[in-house]
Amino acid sequence: MVCRIVVAEDEPPILRDLIQKIEGMGSGFRVVGQAWDGEEALERVRTLRPDVLLTDIHMPMRSGLSLIEAVKAEFQGIVCVILSGYREFDFAQRALQLGVDDYLVKPVTPEAFERAIRAAKAKADERYDRDMNTALNAFIRRSRVAAEYDSESRRIGLLYVVINHPFRNHPEGSRSREFMTEAWSNRGLGPILDELREIPEEPAWIIEGNFNNEIIIAFDESGNDPQRMINVWNRLSASAIDRSWYATGAAGGSELNAEALSAEIDRLRAISREGAVMGQSRLFKHQEPQAHSGWTTADEKSIALLCHNGQTPQLLAAVDRLLERWTSDRVPNVTLERDLVGLLTLVGRSANHIELSQSRNAERLVEDLLSDCGEPDRLRRVIASTIEEAVDANPEPTRTDYEEVVNLVCRYMETHYPNKLTLRELAQQFGLSESHLCKLFKKYKDESPIEYLLKVRIEQSKKLIVENPSFKFKEIAELVGFADQYYYSRVFRSQTGCTPSEYRAISAK
To answer: pLDDT tens, 72-90?
Structure first.
């Protein structure tokens, strides 16, 4: 980021020399304003909002100390540096009281001057990054502090990215939540996001969205290369594809104020929602997604007839052709979701399958499928299996048989919780489908298998926190099976109402 500096000095030769030294330090430094007295300097600061103020102490109209006092009262983030020929203790003491960041005494060597200006830039970059993070997240949450950061003159670029099916908050412990943790952690897309924070010349900030499978990246548009946003998108989408996921993105920009930023993010989210297509990563820069239609009256009649006649093989073949057509036509997820609900509800009613015939149950099932399936082929297999089960339903075992299976799975998780356990592995371990295992847990435990596993892990971590006060939370997270400390902290807080550090403090009393 370019460091913007206002220089205040009442002696023209010294002023010219200071400006020449600063601009000779490279493209990362720019003098945006100069002043010969304190009042003019204050006006320059109010108008230009610099990152750094470099001022003499003794100036006409208003002293340097009075200038800094006024600047600190209005603009907390500006780094203030004094360059003065006075060594008096009173001046230095007052400067410290005002929060001056550096105090240089004339004459100062070129090397010492450059070190001081570079140090001021580093402080300004750090404050700017912290303030922008605060501002952006305050805007998203409509916090009271957001008003402090409103700026009609500053613009930011926005890249909205959502992984797999938008848009829902995946519950704690769901397979989709596991997937999202993998997506944003250091084993997935995390390194790419971390790199964005490590380039001070090209600031970028990560904003948490409303859903845990979305993220918003804000770019500083001042002097920034717009191609950088596209490059970041290309890397994110390529990383998603490598893991059999898909990403949908929308690029835009906004003024830095709460109303404009929230409106733009809502617009980008809507574009992504309307344009997301299973298995295909797509970025919308300027164009709006086109409307698509999938389910037709002819499709509905054909499926209903095959169900009515009990022609299961022909029905499965027809459904497979239908799904293949929808995916090859790039039918957006919003249309696919609506049409799959219609398909499953129709099959359920035709096959007298009570649960599937209710649209509310079909909607929940489809939402889960679209959230968990990153590839069209897998979706087609799962849909075919679901329809086959509905048409050729077999009598269920007794309650005792199923309840014992659930208890066995619980005991298995209680002894293997440090391992990386997934819903698929648990289902295979006990010879069940993933959906069937989830239904059994919901029926007998009123929660999903992964929700139960998370409870076990959190209980074990609470013991480790109390019994091992020297253990770091990252170590504890790994010992109980969490690959990501941030996710561990979120789950811990959701289950206990406090953070791991707060729990440690309470337990120590």
So the answer is: 888 777 888 888 776 654 5
Phi, psi of 132 (to 5 degrees): -65, -40
Q: How confident is the model at residue 293 (pLDDT cuts 50, 70, 90)?
A: low
b/e map 417-437, b = 16+ CB within 10 Å: beeebebeebbeeeebebbeb
Q: In what order do the strands lie in the sheet with 204-208?
A: 204-208, 214-220, 151-163, 247-256, 282-284
**CA of residue 472 relative to chain centroid, distance:** 25
Distance in angstroms (rounded) separating the CA atoms of residues 143 and 92: 38
**CB count, 10 Å around CB of 92?**
16
Identify whether the C-beta of residue 214 lies closer than 8 Å to the C-beta of residue 184.
no
* Beta bridge partner(s), residue 414: none
Q: Which two tokens stand for residue 440?
A: 């059994």
- Whether the Cβ atoms of residue 95 and residue 82 lie closer than 8 Å to each other: yes
Q: What pTM was estimated for this model as a whole?
A: 0.49
Q: Helices 110-140 and 258-275: crossing angle, nearest 10°?
A: 60
Q: Quote the CA–CA distance of 224 and 202 in Å, as a whole number.
A: 7
Q: 336 — alpha (psi -120 to 50), left (phi > 0) or beta?
A: alpha
Contact 464, 471 (CB under 8 A): yes
- Residue 163's DSSP bridge partners are 247
Residue 364: CB atoms within 10 A of its CB come to 12
The CA dihedral of 243, 171, 483, 375, to the nearest 10 degrees, is: -10
Question: Average per-residue pLDDT in the chain?
Answer: 77
